[in-house]
Automatic annotation (TrEMBL):
InterPro entries: DNA_pol_HolB (IPR004622), DNA_pol_III_delta_C (IPR015199), DNA_Rep/Repair_Clamp_Loader (IPR050238), P-loop_NTPase (IPR027417). It catalyses: DNA(n) + a 2'-deoxyribonucleoside 5'-triphosphate = DNA(n+1) + diphosphate. It comes from the Bacteria. It is an enzyme of class 2 (transferase). Its EC number is 2.7.7.7. GO terms for molecular function: 3'-5' exonuclease activity; DNA binding; DNA-directed DNA polymerase activity. One of its GO terms (biological process) is DNA-templated DNA replication. GO terms for cellular component: DNA polymerase III complex. Coiled coil: none annotated. Keywords: DNA replication, DNA-directed DNA polymerase, Nucleotidyltransferase, Transferase. This is DNA polymerase III subunit delta'. Residues 241-328 form the DNA polymerase III delta subunit C-terminal domain.
Amino acid sequence: MTRTIEQLKTIQPVVIKQLQTIIEKNRTAHAYIFDGEQGTGKREVAHFFAKLLLCDNIIHNVPCETCRQCIRIESGNHPNVVEIMPDGAFIKIEQVRELLAEMKKKGMEEGRKIYILHDADRLNVGAANTLLKYLEEPDGVVTAILVTAQLQSILPTIRSRCQHIKFQKMPRAVLIEKLLAAGVTQSMASTVSMVTNELETAIALSQDEQFASARKTVLKLVEAVQKNVHEALLIVHEDWLPSFKEKSDMEQALDLLLFAYRDIVAYKANPDAAFTYPDLLPLLREVSLQTTYEQLSNQLQAILHTRSNLQRNMNRALMMEQLMLNLQEG
């Protein structure tokens, strides 16, 4: 579903304002990179910008959505707006050559021509070099929009010839609101919105039984640590280690554990804060009253240190046992 301009303003207020100022001051560059994570609205903002550039009746710096130009862009049928997607793993040199040939066709309408390259980080070497030549010597009134979630994978020589538009992550409150609308529970929405900023991934995660089980194991461990170290060690050996055999699973579990201790810090500072585990509030309240900021800082550092040790392939059982002792001591 296409987002409205009001929704785009909510998700990317700075970007929308940047693009509106570009049009208002008539400072359109010949190439832009739209850089941001998945789910930050880059594709829809690219279409919004194309409409701003071609709309016949801009009202208050917003495309009218009703003129012939806007309607054709929305339907994907505007002859002066060409979009390229990767063909398999890459955007290939033939695709870029066809694109540039299309840009030079006499049959296209008068006025600005716009091409949008989605996943521009997936240009293969030949395609990137061909595009670079065109960026160095653009032919006519042309605007390129390169859309990417992996800016570092684009050739530095291409990056240097484009104006960089940085997309911020979707505000967590907006993501939670969308997850609730999709039927995800408040507690699960609060957790998955800390793990990913991408709506579809968050919904999939919320429905993943393995993730739900991991979440449960982490919270079980947090409760056990507050009771005594022996119970915590029992859960490590009976639940934690058998559940998180892969390094990636262990990394995610340690992240979830870190979020729980951050929740305790957040509750101590502001009981009305937005938590990762709102269903754990009674425990957060209890622990925050019994623990100093210094102890919580030591516990957070212990978890981060354990996560770092995980990359060194240390014995995981010993590593987790040491963590339980450190968490107990604070």
